[in-house]
Amino acid sequence: MDDWLWMSASDLGRGIGAGRIDPVELTEAYLAAAAAHQHGRRIYVRMTETRARAEAEGARRRAKDGVRRGLLDGVPVSWKDLFDTAGVVTEAGTLLLEGRTPDADAEVLAAATRAGTVCLGKTHMSELAFSGLGLNPAYGHNTDPAPGTPPNVHDPALAPGGSSSGAAASVAFGLAPAGIGSDTGGSVRVPAAWNDLVGLKTTHGRLSLKGVVPLAESFDTVGPLCRTVEDCAELLAVMEGGKPADLRGATLEGARFLLLQPYATDVRDAPGTAFASAVERLGNAGARVEAGTVSCIAEAMDLSPVLFATEGYGTWRDVIEAAPHKMYPRILERFRGGRDFSAPDYVAGWRRLRELRAVWAGETAAYDAVLLPTVANLPPNVARLMSDPDYYVTENLLTLRNTRVGNLMGLCGLTLPTGVPSCGLMMLAAPGSEERLLRLGAAAEAALS
User: What one GO molecular function would you report for this record (predicted)?
Assistant: First the structure.
């Protein structure tokens, strides 16, 4: 059973279908692993044992009767603690929402449940999802100095990446075969990269946000963190009630990629070296890679403060200002940055961004995807982040710089491990082109393995 903990979600599903794996025994193995793990309480906010066991029993009966609902029927999944779970506290990593208990599941969780997946539990996250570092010292239920901060799989002293920090840790530490997170500025892709996982940022609007605690609904997206590209394709399908991308015969032969400057090379040494090696391997597999820039991207990046912080503060202002002492000061400061802009600033910013998105679409139309190092820096030290405010700001902004390109331009994105710890390669593709992106990702995964 210990081997099950490290299998991909899709392979577990195939094992259930072949009768080699019992869904109840599989779920019990994950529940036991989470309960026994030294970092279990820093990864999961709470387990949903009763629900998980009931769902696993249903999957067992369907498997026995030959009426499985799909490949992932009976496969356990972890859920970031901003997805509503009926009758289970959902606090989005903040004491501002302490005790908040929704009456219904988030739509994506409900869809995944109908497809037969098993809800294992709710994972820790950055407070209200507003940080790429995954540091959350203001929230938690134990005596750890940073109780809401999951460990990085390579070193517990390092930041796990956020805001879907626990989602990544649950998979990386073998406490779930897949995790579901959200991505507003990089919150799926950063923790996936820093923990050597595959992470999919979906196109805004593709997956329902109903029942998802918002950060900035104009940018919020839902996405999976997994061991393989195939798993990402399968989880996208179950969350939207569709069919998974057909990855058979995926190839890089003839694919054309834009290596985006300066973001591809203006990075720290380790991510830069890992990215260059990965790009070379893609080229060896038949891809054509060209370095260049897109004229609108610098202006679009400059719009970030007025667009993200303003919407976030507008969404949460009344809740925050009723009890600001409950928040981690660095996160409170980021939200309050949204006070600096007027409504006309925000409207003008969005009008301009839509124009810039059209420029991006025109200048990248000849390429299958844009390539970047997923994150420009390595995971920083948690203790230093907590003691050095300037370091926190510098690292957080750099952490989210490359991934934010995808959110600003409204793209879908995929991060893949490069084989170098905490260094990912990111592909960004046109809105709504997840199936094509996943095929490219499957071919790249083979080239990078």
Answer: catalytic activity
Q: CA 335, CA 426: separation in Å to the nearest integer? A: 27
187 belongs to the catalytic site = yes
Question: 424 near 416, Cβ under 8 Å?
Answer: yes
- For residue 142, pLDDT over 70 is answered with no
To the query of whether residue 80 is one of the catalytic residues in this protein, the response is: yes
Q: Is 309 within 8 Å of 345 (Cβ atoms)? A: no
Active-site residue identified among 10, 78, 80, 182: 80
Domains of the chain (ranges; CATH) run 2-240 (3.90.1300.10), 256-448 (3.90.1300.10)
The pTM for the full model equals 0.97
Known catalytic membership, residue 163: yes
**Would you say residue 144 has pLDDT above 70?**
no
Catalytic choice (131, 163, 170, 304): 163
Helices 310-322 and 329-336 cross at an angle (nearest 10°) of 130
Provide mean pLDDT across the span 251-266: 97
> For 305, which DSSP code?
I
